């Protein structure tokens, strides 16, 4: 084959997208479900809290450190403590940094912090030490909640028979499945684990969703450290953002506890009352009796008078679930 023909052939294949060379180790994006697979940045990401010296005395400070991939990080300082534990949402200080010479330092005009894995040293802009924040690994107050009498256990780690095309890996339920049983109004307990995807962002970062009746979505997403919007973790999709963003860092087990009241329809099939939801995320109330006036656009089922399943969305990212049970209500 002549050089000219060979070159033309390569260009043709490239344009068609038929050939893709293997990615190098540096080009591969991390998608991890365990700390062992997450890489060195995972050990630095997380939540830190403690007391530092302020201008008018000691103040409590929370710090959320978010991995962005390849040694880069974003952090948010939260005066008063962490979300759901002292922070009043009145102020949020952003800092950025990257690992250099084996150290991670995030900085902004107000000061800087050296993230050291199990703690963070906080300094003022001149480098004067103000205090040390300890790393914390929070757990939901409802983690491991036992199903009460009368509950329908959808998944306890032993079988996925309660789900259509349910898949289990290492005793955990995978994303992309629908409960065989359908429900009207109910109380739901669900535990989920977000994959660690530091180089992804927005809706591409550990995305899934839990759909009540296969109609109304409570978003599942790695929204750790973000503002908390309707399309972020805890949000009722396109309806309402959570009152507080309670998303823990990825690879930490998290909980949803949902009180769902189904929509009501008259004999002619006309809706006379919207569905309603009360949601706790990691044990903290984030939605109280919220009116949900429409089904989520991507929902498997349209609104209607009949019951519907619990649907765990597959949005192309690995998510794991466990300890799923439902208490039907009259």
Word description of this protein:
- It is a single chain.
- By secondary structure, this protein is mainly beta.
- Helix content is 5%, strand content 42%.
- It contains 2 helices and 23 strands.
- The chain has helices spanning 3-16, 35-38; strands at 46-54, 57-69, 72-79, 93-100, 103-108, 111-115, 119-123, 129-136, 152-155, 163-164, 168-169, 172-174, 177-179, 185-194, 208-212, 216-220, 253-261, 264-265, 271-273, 275-281, 284-292, 311-312, 319-329.
- The strands form 4 sheets. Strands 1-2-3-4-5-6-7-8 form an 8-stranded antiparallel barrel. Strands 9, 11, 12, 14, 17, 20, 21 and 23 form an 8-stranded antiparallel sheet that branches.
- The chain is elongated.
- The N and C termini lie far apart (76 Å).
Topology (SSEs and partners):
Layout: H1 3-16, H2 35-38, E1 46-54, E2 57-69, E3 72-79, E4 93-100, E5 103-108, E6 111-115, E7 119-123, E8 129-136, E9 152-155, E10 163-164, E11 168-169, E12 172-174, E13 177-179, E14 185-194, E15 208-212, E16 216-220, E17 253-261, E18 264-265, E19 271-273, E20 275-281, E21 284-292, E22 311-312, E23 319-329
Antiparallel strand pairs: 1-2, 1-8, 2-3, 3-4, 4-5, 5-6, 6-7, 7-8, 9-23, 10-13, 11-12, 12-23, 13-22, 14-17, 14-23, 15-16, 15-22, 17-20, 18-19, 20-21
């Amino acid at each position: 084959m002549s050089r000219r023909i060979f070159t033309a052939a390569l260009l043709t294949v490239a344009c068609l997208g038929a050939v893709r060379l293997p990615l190098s180790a540096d080009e591969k994006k991390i998608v991890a479900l365990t700390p062992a697979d997450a890489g060195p940045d995972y050990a630095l990401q997380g939540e830190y809290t403690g007391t530092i010296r302020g201008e008018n005395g000691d103040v409590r400070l929370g710090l959320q450190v978010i991995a962005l991939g390849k040694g880069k990080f974003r952090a948010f300082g939260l005066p008063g403590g962490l979300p759901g534990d002292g922070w009043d949402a009145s102020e949020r200080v952003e800092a950025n940094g990257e690992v250099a010479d084996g150290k991670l330092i995030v900085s902004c005009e107000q000061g800087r912090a050296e993230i050291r894995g199990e703690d963070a040293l906080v300094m003022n802009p001149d480098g004067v030490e103000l205090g040390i924040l300890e790393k914390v690994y929070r757990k939901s107050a409802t983690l491991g909640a036992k199903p009460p009498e009368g509950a329908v256990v959808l998944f306890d780690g032993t079988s996925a028979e309660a789900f259509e095309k349910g898949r289990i890996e290492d005793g955990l339920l995978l994303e992309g499945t629908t409960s065989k049983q359908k429900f009207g109004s109910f109380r739901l307990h669900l535990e989920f684990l977000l994959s660690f995807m530091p180089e992804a962002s927005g809706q591409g970062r550990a995305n899934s969703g839990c759909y009540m009746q296969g109609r109304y979505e409570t978003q599942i997403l790695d929204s750790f450290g973000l503002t908390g919007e309707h399309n972020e973790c805890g949000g009722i999709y396109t309806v309402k953002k959570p009152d507080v963003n309670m998303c823990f860092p990825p690879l930490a087990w998290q909980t949803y506890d949902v009180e769902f009241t189904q929509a009501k329809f008259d004999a002619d099939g006309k809706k006379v009352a919207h569905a309603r939801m009360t949601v706790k995320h990691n044990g903290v109330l984030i939605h109280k009796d919220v009116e949900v006036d429409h089904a989520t656009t991507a929902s498997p089922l349209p609104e209607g008078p009949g019951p519907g399943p619990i649907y765990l969305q597959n949005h192309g990212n690995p998510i794991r679930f466990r300890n799923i049970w439902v208490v039907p209500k009259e």
